[in-house]
Write a structure and sequence with these properties.
Elements: H1 2-9, E1 11-21, E2 29-34, E3 55-58, H2 68-72, H3 76-79, H4 95-99, E4 105-108, E5 110-113, H5 114-122, H6 125-131, E6 134-138, H7 146-158, E7 162-167, H8 173-180, E8 185-189, H9 195-202, H10 207-219, E9 223-229, H11 237-250, E10 256-261, H12 265-273, H13 287-298, E11 303-306
Parallel strand pairs: 2-6, 6-7, 7-8, 8-9, 9-10, 10-11
Antiparallel strand pairs: 1-2, 1-5, 3-4
């Protein structure tokens, strides 16, 4: 009982909870998104997840220019603009959000206990039972908040609910393995087999990621590899064959691969955060290019699905 109370009181920084999701794991799921990620992928679809602190997202089309945000901001006199934090002093306190009459500002990220998150997850137990669904924790990178994630997974499984985690794989193994004990499904991203190209696009090489993939494949109950397919980055045949060979020959028992075709949703989010988006104007892959990638991976004896 004391252990459960300790688990439920642990806190983490959550930036979104989505109910009735059907793509990130089996069946109908609740997705819990945590803030904080060690990578800086140029195509990131959740740039609001990268920093492990609350941030303010600005919807310029809603702004009426009333200036209430500047009056409420601790650094208001230094900002010069009610549209942007031009001096980079924002600490994510949310005071501007509270007074924004037009709802042009939204605070991304809040501290929640395991118990508070679990209360949301338990609302849809009947849907999990009917669809073999459950909880999926993503981000960001869940192992960035390993103790919180492990506690949430443990308490969720106590309720006999299926658990899954989405990971980029870049984390110390001692942190990563904390999650596996209470995990039913591991969704593991692989981005590129060339370490230098991986570093150019994500900010880090792939050595730790590939090693963790191997270790996880030996320890996970169920594991699916996911490949974000990005134009002009990792969709060339050479890299796809290398990925297919790695999964087939180095990952014990892993045969399922999900291709996640590039989309540009991260661009509009980056604009609202006032951050740089590295793939501005990049067009998604054609259907034929995605099918070709699927066929290459299938040639390595893998079961390949397009989508999450």
């Amino acid at each position: 009982m004391i252990e459960r109370q300790n688990n439920r009181s642990k806190t983490g920084i959550v930036f979104d909870i989505q109910r009735f999701a059907i793509h990130d794991g089996y069946g109908i799921r609740t997705l819990v998104f945590l803030k904080g990620c060690p990578l800086r992928c140029t195509w990131c679809s959740n740039p609001e997840s990268q920093k492990q602190k609350p941030e303010v997202m600005f919807y310029e089309e809603k702004c009426i220019g009333c200036g209430a945000c500047i009056e409420a901001c601790p650094f208001g006199e230094e900002r010069k603009s009610f549209r942007r934090d031009t001096r980079g002093r924002c600490v994510g306190c949310g005071k501007c959000v509270e007074v924004c009459y037009a709802e042009a500002r939204k605070l991304i990220g809040r501290t929640m206990t395991v118990g508070e998150v679990l209360d949301v997850v338990l609302k849809d137990t009947v849907f999990y039972e009917e669809s073999s669904g459950g909880l999926t924790i993503g981000g960001g990178e869940p192992s960035f908040q390993a103790d919180f994630t492990a506690a949430l997974l443990e308490e969720t499984r106590r309720e006999t609910i299926h658990t899954a985690v989405e990971t980029c794989g870049f984390t110390p193994w001692d942190q990563f393995k904390k999650l596996l004990k209470h995990l039913d499904l591991l969704l593991f991203d692989l981005k590129h087999m060339d370490s230098e190209k991986h570093k150019d696009a994500t900010g880090t090489g792939n050595e730790v990621i590939l090693r963790n993939a191997e270790l996880a494949s030996e320890a996970a109950r169920d594991m699916i590899i996911r490949i974000p397919l990005i134009p002009n980055f990792n969709n060339d045949p050479e890299n796809l064959h290398a990925l297919g060979d790695f999964v087939n020959s180095r990952l014990s028992g892993v045969r399922q691969v999900n291709i996640l075709p590039y989309h540009s949703i991260g661009e509009s989010k980056s604009e609202r955060l006032g951050t740089f988006y590295g793939l501005h104007g990049l067009k998604p892959l054609e259907k034929e290019e995605i099918v070709s990638a699927k066929q290459i991976l299938q040639s390595h004896g893998l079961q390949v699905k397009i989508g999450g």
